[in-house]
Amino acid sequence: MAEGDIVGAPPDHLWVHQEGVYRDEYQRTWIAFVEEETSFIRARVQQVQVPLSDAVRPSHLPPSQLPLMWQLYPEEHYLDNNSRIWEIEHHLMVRGVEELLLKLLPDD
């Protein structure tokens, strides 16, 4: 697969497992990074295999701009556990790693 190639369907769900680490419905692990821009927030989420310890209780996680859960939503979006909508800007292979780039849309 060439760099920047579109991959199959994005994960249906991503649940936080520990700080910065999410699991999808196939138990694959995803690392999430916040990228703050002047007027919006992006999350770069990469499918990287990480050895998992026990899941952390949400109440024990530090405050974060990232949600506890993303659920695939119609029209290339995710809905998070706070009812915020994130646009899928891309879902590609980047340097051999499956990557989602999500942009938090403003509240209307």
Automatic annotation (TrEMBL):
<dbReference type="GO" id="GO:0019901">
    <property type="term" value="F:protein kinase binding"/>
</dbReference>
<dbReference type="InterPro" id="IPR036672">
    <property type="entry name" value="TCL1_MTCP1_sf"/>
</dbReference>
<dbReference type="Pfam" id="PF01840">
    <property type="entry name" value="TCL1_MTCP1"/>
</dbReference>
<dbReference type="InterPro" id="IPR004832">
    <property type="entry name" value="TCL1_MTCP1"/>
</dbReference>
<dbReference type="GO" id="GO:0043539">
    <property type="term" value="F:protein serine/threonine kinase activator activity"/>
</dbReference>
<comment type="similarity">
    <text>Belongs to the TCL1 family.</text>
</comment>
<dbReference type="GO" id="GO:0035556">
    <property type="term" value="P:intracellular signal transduction"/>
</dbReference>
<comment type="function">
    <text>Enhances the phosphorylation and activation of AKT1 and AKT2.</text>
</comment>
<comment type="subunit">
    <text>Interacts with AKT1 and AKT2 (via PH domain). Does not interact with AKT3.</text>
</comment>
<protein>
    <recommendedName>
        <fullName>Protein p13 MTCP-1</fullName>
    </recommendedName>
</protein>
